[in-house]
Design brief:
By secondary structure, the chain is α/β, with parallel strands linked by helices. It has helices spanning 16-30, 58-62, 71-79, 97-109, 113-116, 137-151, 163-181, and strands at residues 3-8, 34-39, 83-89, 123-130, 154-162. The protein binds flavin mononucleotide.
Length: 191
């Protein structure tokens, strides 16, 4: 059985983003997977410093980041997992700030082969939850798709959710988890 890490751009373990994530993890657990969750706003992850005057730094030269915070440990958690579930609340029709800070830096270290090691080609599933008026979820899904593919994940799905369809989608997200655990095959027997 595999190991999965879920990385959330919300700090609320009982919030809408966490509930959607838990539903996917439920499916992975049902398939015998070990799962863990990391809430980005509770970690110390600074924004990129754009170290040199050309905008690059150790990310490009070495595939690592000079900032000493929780970033490196979280990158290791990804490397040590068989797949990753990314989930962000929709803020202003886009990624949350903590999610952006993390993926901005991950995208940079993955420009170098050392940074890409253990990340490139790793299966990932992404969720975004518009919990207010419900707008901006498709636009946020587009941002997720772009940044996670640029990093190099094998992104098997990006699922937009909104407050108005959350209760319904919570009933099908465990199936997404089972599908992910099975390697996200193109053919699936269905319920
Ligand atoms: C700064 C900010 C911007 C937000 N922008 C949107 C938005 O564009 N569309 C929307 O439906 N909800 C928006 N919301 C509501 C969040 O999507 C909602 O709080 C979130 O999905 C639930 O977060 P939780 O998972 O932490 O409970 C916004 C919330 C905040 C704090």
């Amino acid at each position: 059985m595999g190991k999965a890490v879920a990385i959330l751009g919300s700090r609320n373990p009982a919030g809408q983003t966490a509930r959607a994530t838990d539903a996917v993890l439920e499916g992975l657990c049902a398939a015998g997977w070990e799962v863990r969750k990391e809430f980005l706003p509770t970690l110390r992850i600074e924004r990129c410093r754009q170290c040199d005057e050309r905008g690059w730094g150790d990310c490009r030269a070495r595939g690592s980041c000079v900032i000493e915070d929780d970033f490196a440990a979280l990158v290791e958690a990804i490397r040590n997992s068989d797949c990753v579930v990314f989930a962000t609340p929709v803020y202003f029709g886009d990624l949350s700030e903590s999610f952006r800070a993390f993926t901005d830096r991950l995208r940079r270290i993955c420009r170098h082969e050392n940074g890409r090691a253990g990340i490139e080609g790793k299966r990932a599933l992404a969720l975004c939850v518009a919990g207010g008026g419900g707008g901006g979820s498709p636009a946020c899904a587009e941002s997720l798709d772009r940044v996670l593919r640029t990093i190099g994940f094998d992104l098997v799905d990006v699922i937009p959710l909104r407050r108005q369809n959350l209760a319904f989608k919570l009933t099908i997200l465990p199936q997404h988890g089972k599908w992910l655990a099975a390697g996200a095959p193109e053919s699936w027997p269905g319920p």
